[in-house]
Structure to design on (484 residues):
């Protein structure tokens, strides 16, 4: 980390002003943290056009202690977060993103965060016995949740045990009491790997939990950034400006100098408490409650009138399924190209599968075996392997983001016996609702690669599509616009 210099403090409020002037924020006054914030956000995001929601005067909490939800669930909001201009068109946003993740990853090393000693995050500091996590309006998001989750759209900063690598990951945070919160990290996630090293050494694990900032923070900490790369560097590459950070008093971990609320503390060796269940992104409460590491909070830093950034998952579409689909589709496109798959026209990671279980790539078929190559890599590449289930390959006359077209291709261009390859004992997850029916002793799953392209050896004879040509469509649309 560098000292001083001009950095970007990841100020949520600067971004809020920008999207408010674009008509993308609704204020909600007087809702209850007890299920209302969750249900309102859930219903909001299922509307045709859904604004971001800024909740204030939440039942039992002082005016000014706010919660923001649905921050990433529209093209305008997502494009402004990604600094791609104010882009109301989903198609244009996807187009503008093409190739960007590879560029950001390549540039990240140039954008070490810069350290400053001051920032609005230090407006208020709670220390020792003054620490009170319950002072903030953590919602009970879903009816069957095991507790109040203060961290959903959050970013958890941790330091490696035997290197200087700082990781920033989005992991859910449940409130236990005034100075304890639960930290749920899936095995294999970078924070989990770092925690295991401290556990083995019998040392406390330092943690800083950012509960609100410019949504670019949780957008990037919530996707797969390469092992040993710091997400603050990656964010710097997107912003073309380093992130401005301050460091915590007790752990010296960095966090954005304009963060809204930060909990700082330690996971002491072996310290676990019951956590969950929690309504999750595949649309289920996967599994029962279970033990999860506990963070003992020693400091809370927060801005005047703080805003918690909430991003509650649920049956899709949910708060972050749109942004996950857009981001993961861009990452998968990059991964396929980097693996040498030519002529990839488009990729889509569908919201119905939490942007993981059901992915589709459209290719311009160039050679025999091209389609299987694309499908297997889509299913198994680094970004794709976790919880992939159905990887579908279609020709480039099919829009991979359009489920109707994709299912038409599967229905009409496959011979199930030869066009569905099965991969056994692939990477699964305990979040998978099907895991309880599987015979494995570990989070494994089988995977299907569906080749729904026209068979390469019969391309010339394959029946023509019975649909008006583009030229004819354009002509009649123009002439008959009153009825079409
Ligand atoms: C809103 C949101 C909540 C998430 N919650 C969790 C969680 O509770 N536990 C987890 O392991 N991953 C969770 N994820 C997924 C991880 O953030 C994601 O896999 C990320 O790549 C983890 O960071 P890492 O690669 O540095 O480990 C969540 C993602 C989002 C966007």
């Amino acid at each position: 980390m560098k000292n001083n210099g001009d950095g970007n403090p990841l100020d949520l409020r600067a971004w809020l002003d920008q999207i408010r002037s674009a008509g993308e924020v609704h204020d909600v006054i007087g809702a209850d943290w007890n299920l209302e914030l969750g249900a309102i956000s859930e219903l909001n995001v299922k509307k045709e056009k859904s604004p971001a929601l800024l909740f204030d005067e939440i039942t039992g909490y002082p005016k000014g202690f706010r919660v923001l939800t649905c921050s990433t669930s529209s093209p305008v909001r997502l494009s402004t977060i990604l600094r791609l201009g104010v882009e109301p068109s989903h198609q244009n946003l996807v187009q503008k993103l093409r190739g960007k993740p590879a560029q950001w990853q390549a540039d990240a090393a140039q954008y070490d965060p810069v350290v400053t000693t001051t920032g609005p995050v230090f407006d208020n500091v709670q220390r020792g016995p003054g620490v009170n996590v319950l002072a903030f309006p953590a919602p009970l998001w879903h009816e069957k949740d095991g507790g109040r989750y203060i961290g959903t759209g959050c970013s958890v900063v941790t330091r490696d045990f035997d290197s200087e690598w700082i990781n920033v990951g989005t992991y859910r945070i449940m409130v236990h009491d005034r100075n304890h919160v639960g930290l749920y990290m899936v095995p294999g996630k970078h924070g989990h790997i770092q925690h295991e090293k401290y556990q083995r050494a019998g040392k406390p694990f330092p943690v800083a939990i950012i509960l609100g900032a410019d949504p670019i923070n949780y957008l990037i900490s919530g996707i797969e950034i390469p092992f040993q790369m710091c997400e603050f560097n990656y964010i710097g590459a997107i912003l073309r400006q380093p992130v401005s950070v301050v460091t915590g008093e007790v752990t010296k971990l960095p966090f954005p100098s304009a963060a809204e609320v930060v909990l700082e503390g330690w996971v002491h060796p072996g310290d676990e408490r019951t956590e969950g269940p929690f309504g999750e992104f595949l649309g289920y409460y996967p599994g029962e409650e279970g033990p999860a590491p506990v963070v003992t909070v020693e400091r809370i830093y927060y801005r005047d009138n703080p805003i918690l950034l909430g991003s509650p998952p649920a049956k899709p579409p949910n708060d972050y399924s749109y942004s996950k689909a857009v981001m993961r589709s861009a990452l998968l496109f990059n991964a396929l190209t980097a693996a040498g798959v030519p002529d990839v026209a488009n990729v889509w990671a569908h919201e119905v599968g939490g942007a993981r279980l059901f992915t589709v790539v459209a290719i311009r078929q160039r050679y025999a075996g091209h389609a299987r190559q694309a499908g297997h890599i889509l299913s198994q590449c680094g970004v794709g392997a976790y919880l992939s289930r159905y990887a579908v390959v279609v020709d480039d006359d099919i829009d991979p983001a359009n489920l109707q077209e994709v299912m038409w291709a599967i229905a009409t261009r496959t011979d199930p016996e030869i066009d569905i390859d099965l991969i056994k004992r692939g990477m699964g997850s305990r979040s998978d609702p099907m895991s309880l029916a599987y015979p494995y002793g570990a989070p494994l799953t089988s995977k299907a690669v569906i080749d729904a392209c026209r068979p390469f050896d019969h391309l010339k004879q394959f029946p023509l599509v019975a649909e008006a040509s583009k030229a004819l469509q354009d002509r009649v649309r123009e002439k008959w616009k009153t009825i079409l």
